[in-house]
Amino acid sequence: PSSHLFLSSSLLELISLPVCVLTVSQHALAGVVEVNEGEESVLMPCYFKGMVPEDNPLVIWTRSDLNPSLIHLRRDEGDDLKDQHQGYRDQTSMRHDLLDTGNFSLTLRKPRLSDSGNYTCRLADEREEWRVTEVQLKVKGEQQTPPPAGGQRSNYRK
């Protein structure tokens, strides 16, 4: 009987404890992507390996140090760029079949030094949001090559 009382009081203590719920996101660091300033484009990888939600899925690319932070938003119907950061207008694109393939990679055209930063790729629907990956983009300045020693370059061949 006394052990039964102990068990019951322990059970009551356990039941009355506050509950902490943790949200776990499918999240991976895709790594660092390096590109030279002025290149034609750079691809920031993002791949989702689960079921894409059927109810109004969104693929969202953001950069948290900017305001607004939205870099690119894709809905089921297509791109929705009305709230896009103005520095990325006409600079970003995504695959048209991304919701079918899970390839949410973002192409950034003509990268500039100011594009360097941490980008987050997310998938969302009306109820939930999943952080899929983070990419650190490093845009390197153009390397100026010094002229060869001795002055001008010559096309003379022996």
UniProtKB/TrEMBL annotation:
InterPro entries: Ig-like_dom, Ig-like_dom_sf, Ig-like_fold, Ig_sub, Ig_V-set, T-cell_Activation_Regulation. Residues 137-158 are annotated as: Disordered. Its main location: membrane. SUPFAM superfamilies: Immunoglobulin. It is a single-pass type I membrane protein. It comes from the Eukaryota. It is found in: Cell membrane. Keywords: Cell membrane, Disulfide bond, Glycoprotein, Immunoglobulin domain, Membrane, Receptor, Signal, Transmembrane, Transmembrane helix. Residues 18-133 form the Ig-like domain. One of its GO terms (cellular component) is external side of plasma membrane. Residues 1-30 form the signal peptide. One of its GO terms (biological process) is immune response. The keyword Transmembrane applies. This is Ig-like domain-containing protein. It comes from Kryptolebias marmoratus.
